[in-house]
Design brief:
By secondary structure, the chain is of the alpha+beta class. The chain has 14 helices and eight strands. The N terminus is likely disordered.
Length: 321
């Protein structure tokens, strides 16, 4: 702990040597390109041979959520705090390198994932931003996927559950004599089975977007077998209960216009283009590297439940300097 405290204190002294660079941001939009470049090269902190410059700070701020960036652009104290964090990260990174932490299997795997994600990000950056996509491309996508932009009919389901089929049949016969909404609502109020009542709107059984968790599929089928609003189904068995379903209301199918969907179209088209660019990169690199999978070994290998932690630690300690 003493060694770390001395190391951090020494680095903070180095940082304090140019806190003037933090008091007023040197990276500005105005001025000549040469002046901006000189401002970006201002050294704000040093640890070993590593220099943290105004350009490093600007990149770090740019990587933050948009709502946080203004604080660091306007507040010298916030910039100082951020550079202290960057400095501590660099100190710990250098310590990890000195102890060859990257040789540990889990660290090596994490680094591979980070580098792989960075390669995919580069492929994504080759796709224009959503707001720059041509309207003609968006229109072609909309026309090709028009069924996805039609909201099919929705029906409102009110249901009541009974413990036995005999109880459900008895209630159904009573409804034949009095088909009014009030009579069905009275059955719902009298029911002591959980889940009865107004269950909401659902689409046809073959419409994935019309699913609703409160309406099981058998009840959804039943309401779409009814012809007119107000009709009640025959008893429907589901789970441990028997249900009567009332067709309580209808919303006609609606088409979502191109204009109303343009923002969503831009996001979806760009997402698909990014996915295609990333898949193309992976396929190209697989072919270039000659990568292959031993399918037979993969099918027959028996994975251990875990790893021998003590044995792993001994092997790792041997690699340390």
């Amino acid at each position: 702990m003493v060694r770390w405290a001395l190391l951090l204190a020494a680095c903070h002294v180095v940082l304090a040597c140019d806190e003037r660079g933090l008091a007023e941001p040197r990276v500005e939009r105005g001025g000549t390109a040469g002046a901006r470049r000189r401002a970006e090269l201002v050294v704000l902190a040093v640890v070993g041979e590593r220099r943290i410059t105004a350009a490093d700070l600007a990149r770090r701020v740019a990587s933050l959520p948009e709502g946080e960036r203004g604080r660091y652009r306007e507040d010298a104290g916030a910039r100082r705090e951020l550079v202290h964090r960057m400095l501590d990260e660099e100190i710990l990174a250098q310590e990890a390198v000195r102890h060859r932490v990257a040789d540990a299997p889990e660290i090596a795997d994490a680094l591979k994932q980070i580098l792989g994600a960075a390669a995919l990000e580069r492929a994504a950056a080759s796709v224009p931003p959503a707001e720059e996509l041509a309207v003609a491309e968006l229109r072609a996508f909309y026309d090709a996927h028009l069924p996805n932009y039609v909201v099919r009919e929705r029906r409102r389901v009110v249901a009541v559950a009974f413990r036995t089929n005999e109880d459900a049949q008895r209630a159904r016969r009573a409804l034949d004599r009095d088909t009014g909404e009030a009579r069905f609502d009275a059955l719902v109020r009298a029911s002591d089975v959980d889940g009865a009542g107004d269950l909401g709107n659902v689409g046809p059984p073959d419409d994935p977007s019309g699913d609703f968790h409160r309406v099981p599929l058998p009840l959804r089928r039943a309401v779409f077998e009814l012809r007119d609003v107000g009709e009640v189904s025959e008893p429907v068995e589901h789970g441990a209960q028997v249900w009567l379903v009332r067709y309580a209301g209808r919303t006609a199918a609606q088409e979502r216009s191109f204009a109303s969907e343009e923002a969503n179209l831009r996001r979806e088209v760009r997402r698909r283009r990014v996915e295609a660019a990333q898949n193309e990169l992976v396929a190209k690199e697989r072919a270039r590297s000659g990568a292959r999978i031993d399918v037979e070994s993969l099918a027959t290998i028996v994975l251990p439940d875990g790893i021998d932690e003590a044995r792993y630690e001994r092997r790792y300690e041997k690699r340390r300097p």
